[in-house]
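Morning. Coffee machine broken again, so started the prediction first thing and wrote up yesterday's gels while waiting. Chain of 486 residues, entered below exactly as on the submission form.
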Amino acid sequence: MSGLEQLRGFTARTGQALLEASPKWTITFAAVMIAAVAVLDRHIQLNLSLGVLYAIPIMIASPSLKPWHILITGLICAILREHYATYSWEPHAISRLSTSFSVFAGAGLFVREVAYGRRTAMQLSQELKEQVERREEAENQLKILVESSPAAIMTVDAGGLIDIANLAAHQMLAVPDNTLRGSSIGDFLPMVGDLLKAAGGNLPYRSATTCRGRRSSGESFLACVWFATYPTRSGQRLAAIITDASEDLRDWQETSLQSLLRSTRVLVGSVSHEIRNICAAISVVHANLGRLNGVAQTEDYAALGTLAQGLTRLATVELHSPGEHELGDASVEQLLDEFRIVISPSLESCDAELRIEAQEHLPHVLGDRHELLQVLLNLARNSIRAIEDQPERIITLSARLDGESVMLRFSDSGPGVDQPDKLFQPFQQGAEEVGLGLFVSRAIVRACAGELYYESSARGCTMCLRLRPCPTSEPASEVQNTEISA
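Came back before lunch.
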């Protein structure tokens, strides 16, 4: 290493040490040096003044001084230099004072600005280093999040080519790991391949969709896609989160089918009950007509008997034995949450308010949650029709533990019911559709080992659902259906 390089290294280390030193130490050291130079300049009689050495302590202390402090220090050092010089206060002293002051103050101000720039550069460098470290940490956390996500996460460039894909995406599309990069998204999700084109321009586009996907083996699956576009220097890009909804679709269809079959069985049983009542009346009329002379031999009499017998056989047909259906358990809290979510749009359309007052820690009840939800929705629709013309539109649903039962009270601020005794009769006049809503709802609640009934109140209409809590001694699935005949 050359002597010049060694000098540069020494200067850099010395400057760094001065910058990192405390201001109190540097100012004290500079004051001692100024006093030492003044003493030497006074006692050593040379033709050459030692006053030029005053520039060293000024430059040492200047990073810790303010500009006006440097100017005052420079003026003091210029006066000391002139006072202890061999030509002290001789002609042209003012000129020498001005020159000395300019040199001392200029050197100090220059070093101060250099030190300030150095400190600023070091601070910016440290901040940049910290930002880089934080960015790397955030990128690592994001990478871990993406790779550990059970949902497929991909980014697609403007040309429809996959740029980033996590492990779940490779597993969903049935391709080897780390092979999706550069593949066309249209080969797996054709609809997603067109989303960038549909977005257009540089505006962000966020949405969700359900589309048909295709694995590398050719197998189709139902994909739920949440996506967003974002601009980059190379054009629009798309980030997508994809889940396989095939199993959910199968479960939902199976649940819907079972719920439909149970509801159909309840409805058919209820209608059969009414048909049996009609057949009983026809049979009585048929028997009475047979006592009249000459009527029993007529074709019309025989046809009426055949009709009554056919209706009786039709009404006795059962789709499935109710006792073979096992009751499940339903969470009241989850039931109320789902009810609030489903009924909210209908309430908003008529500017109605829903108040749910639920006791905490309610036990699970016997029954199917989907069927009980249908009962609550039917009651809510009836209440909405009742209050839509009222100045105050409020629906209240309370859930309380009443003895050994869970009570759900459904009330509204409507005009009330004129004939409560006819609420649960089928085929009521003036009702929407066929007038079987409350009739079937009560049958569903009874099929869940509960009861639905009307409760008189001072205002509006109040309907009560009395449900049985699930036994704690045995699983709910082992409790047999005790459906009460409609």
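The domain at 329-478 is CATH 3.30.565.10 (Heat Shock Protein 90). Going to sketch it on the whiteboard this afternoon.
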